[in-house]
Amino acid sequence: MSIQASKFTPDDFSYIIGIDFGTTFSGCSYVYAKDSTNEVDEIKEWPRQGSAIYPKVPTVLLYEKDSKKMIAWGYDAIRQASVPNNNGILVNKFKLFLDTSIHSPTELPNGLTPLEVISDYLSGFHAHILVVLKRSLGKIFDPSKFRYCLTVPAMWSDRAKNIMREAAIKSNIIKRADHPDRLILTSEPEAAAIYCEKKSNQFKLTDGQRFMICDAGGGTVDLVVFEINDTSNNRSLCEVTTGSGSSCGSAFLDQNMRHFIEKRFGRFAKENKLVIDDLVDQFITGTKPGFENDDDEYLTLRAGTKFGDQDPSKFGIMDDTFYITVDELREEIFNPVVNQVIDLIKGQINQSKKNIDAIFLVGGFGQSKYLYNTIKNKFKDQVGIIALPSRGEMAVVRGAVMFGKNPRVVTHRIARRTYGLKALLTFDPLLDPENLKVVMPNGYVQSSNRFAVYINKGESVMVDKCVSKTFWTFYPIKISPDLYAYDGDDPPPRHVTDPRIWMVSAFPISMPEYTSLNESTSVKLTVNMYFGLTEIRMEVVIKGKVFILASAFDTHEMKNTSSNISSPDTSCPTTSSQGSVKTTSKEKNTREKLSSPPIPLYRDFPFGIGLNEWSISNAQPPLGGCQNSEENKNKPRNKPKNKRNKKKKETKI
Ligand SMILES: Nc1ncnc2c1ncn2[C@@H]1O[C@H](COP(=O)(O)OP(=O)(O)OP(=O)(O)O)[C@@H](O)[C@H]1O
Ligand SMILES: [Mg+2]
Q1: Nearest-CA residue for atom 5 of ligand 1
Q2: Where is the composition biased (Low complexity) (predicted)?
């Protein structure tokens, strides 16, 4: 369903609320949008927090047994789960379900889907934020004036980001009818970079210097390198590497510890489940944060440990304590995870063509002394500054609101994948299989399923740059300029059916009714894409009507023309003339001649759109500007006077 959205005006929003939805902990900060001091506040109190002092709340839910009904979230979920005879089901680390690189996440209970659990959590979380803000803002509390920045790992797929957007809608953070820009998705390392840049005065980083963010959290470790641009009055950041990341956060230390203990307990592990849970908890709160590779560790064994008639010392138990040597801690628990972080850092250093001047470690795991010391020892000769900015555990959520306030602080980003549309492009008998051959009503012979590339992986894009291509279709056909992606480093495949290519999102659009158009009249449509944002923004302009693909779940139809679109702070109008092309009698004859089987007609490809070789748009939006695609370089700018006489040639993409 298309939804009409009105013009988006950032100034209508007085507060920016940052939400860091983490694997283990989630946080929230907010800022008054019109305040020039940039003072960021954060939510420090969470329901049933007790004596816990961490400024974030556990990302945990408690569900009724055999039901999708959520009982509690956050600290309250943990508290209620520990009540004797409670039979609710505790669900945690569910953010990892959106990481497609983890191949075997344990199933969610009770038939719950990742979208449902994330939405349930965000509902509870957001309701609490509103309570706190209502208390603190009093009379001026007005949730309709809140704009949101939700952080996501840089390495997430477009699909995962779409699920987060959908979860924000399902949990009532924003409404489906809201303009998509009311919710900005921000990458976690980028938010952290903005925070660190603000703190970096003390490190005296200047124009042209580069720094790496290593955001090591509970589930993921995300890295990216930025270059400081300080030539004008506005200090800004330019992403200079393709961010990388992996699921190797601190929770994997906990998992290693659990496996280590279970291995020691052997066949007694099952019946000592509660004892093992308790030992792992002691590791998480006691051993892990302070580990510096210098001491053996002794964890207190709670009563009720059962080893039958076996000698407990066989299981590493001594005087009612479970002991683990420093070598075991380092080699079995820490190094398998820390080494992955080291490899990720090496990858970023290799990717950056220039020297990296600083590495900033943020996130909860980023505060680990062992991680810090290992990184320092490995990289101190290559990188001058290796630092832990203060309040590193809040860097992401604080940076998110700073970004929301001034999105222009980041000027360039690197395309993480090659993106393009499925389209009908000129048929080449040497390269395109015969079964893909399609004859258009105007006689053009084209190949279906071609990959019309918009941007290549690794390309640097200005944040508000729009890449625009003009296509044509035939009235009144339904169109679907579906978006596809390719992650390889080789030249992109020619057809979207190549197994290395996958569909990112379908974008079905019902063509508006035009009484003045006859059937099979060709209709021009312009597909604009913005790749410099955390989410890809795609819009289709058909005869002045603009459709926005806000997420894979949702298409927004704008009320007016492209001049009404404020995203991303600009629009991408097309300057090429609109003229619809009437099918001439000669073309009709050609069509009839060529339409007999076995060559299928365009109608067999109801979602097909043809790339118009003569009217590639060279539109220049007020800021940024449409990227000069290969077509722009190779093709005539203007429509030739006599299209039928124009020699058809392959469009290089
Ligand atoms: N000093 C420390 N050493 C190792 N791990 C730590 C330390 N302090 C906190 N942690 C761990 O860091 C994690 C919390 O960090 P953070 O809040 O950055 O993660 P998150 O946002 O939940 O995860 P992610 O960003 O991966 O989704 C927890 O797993 C916690 O046990
Ligand atoms: Mg985090």
Answers
A1: 365
A2: 566-577
Which of 25, 284, 337 gets mutated to test ligand 1 (max ligand atoms within 8 A of its CB)?
25
Q: 207 - beta bridge partners?
A: none
CA count, 13 A, side-chain hemisphere, 138: 1
As a whole number of angstroms, the distance between CA 506 and CA 504 comes to 7
Tokens of 102: 């983890």
CB atoms within 10 A of CB 596: 9
Closest Cα to atom 6, ligand 1: which residue?
365
- Predicted pLDDT at 594: 25
Say if CB 152 and CB 160 are below 8 A apart. yes
At 198, the amino acid letter reads: K
β-sheet bridge partners, residue 549: 538, 555
Helix axes 395-405, 188-199, angle to 10 degrees: 90
State how far the Cα of 253 lies from the Cα of 218, in Å rounded to an integer. 9
CATH of 2-187, one of 3.30.559.10, 3.30.360.10, 3.30.420.40, 3.20.190.10: 3.30.420.40
* CATH superfamily entry for domain 189-245+341-404: ATPase, nucleotide binding domain (3.30.420.40)
State the distance from the centre of ligand 2 to the C-alpha of 519, rounded, in angstroms: 54
N-term to C-term CA, the chain? 32
Q: Give the whole-angstrom CA distance, residue 470 versus residue 527.
A: 6
Q: Where do runs of H (alpha helix) occur along 499-642? A: 585-594, 630-634
**Closest to 533 in 3D by CA, of 641, 350, 360, 410:** 410
Q: Whose CA is nearest to atom 28 of ligand 1?
A: 218
**Residue ranges around ligand 1 (CB below 6 Å):** 22-25, 56, 95, 217-220, 249-251, 284, 288-289, 363-365, 367-368, 393
Say whether 189-245+341-404 and 2-187 share the same fold: yes
d(CA 224, CA 215): 9
Q: What is the pLDDT of residue 564?
A: 27
Instruction: State yes or no: cis peptide before 114, omega within 30 of 0.
Output: no
Kindly list the averaged pLDDT for each block of 10 residues, start to end, along the chain of length 653. Answer: 53 89 96 81 92 89 95 96 90 88 71 95 97 92 93 86 93 89 91 87 85 94 92 83 90 96 89 89 92 88 76 79 93 97 97 94 95 97 94 93 86 89 90 90 86 92 86 77 89 95 81 80 85 82 78 40 26 24 31 28 40 29 29 32 35 24
Give the Å distance between the CA of 218 and the centre of ligand 1: 4
Q: What are the residue ranges of helices labelled H in 31-83?
A: 74-81
Contact yes or no for 384/211 (Cβ under 8 A): no
Give ion ligand 2 contacts, CB < 5 A.
22, 217
Give the helix ranges, DSSP H, for 479-597: 585-594
Whole-number pLDDT of residue 104: 53
- Show the 3-state SS of 444-457: CEEEEEEEEEEECC
| Amino acid, res. 590 | T
For ligand 1, atom 29, the nearest C-alpha belongs to: 218
Per-residue confidence (pLDDT) for residue 639, from 0 to 100: 34
CATH topology of domain 415-645: Substrate Binding Domain Of DNAk; Chain A, domain 1 (2.60.34)
What are 107-110's contacts with CB under 8 Å, separation 24+? 109/63, 110/63, 110/66, 110/67, 110/68
In terms of Cα–Cα distance, which of 445, 425, 427, 447 is closest to 436? 447
pLDDT confidence of residue 106? 67
Domain ranges within the chain, ordered by starting residue: 2-187, 189-245+341-404, 251-333, 415-645
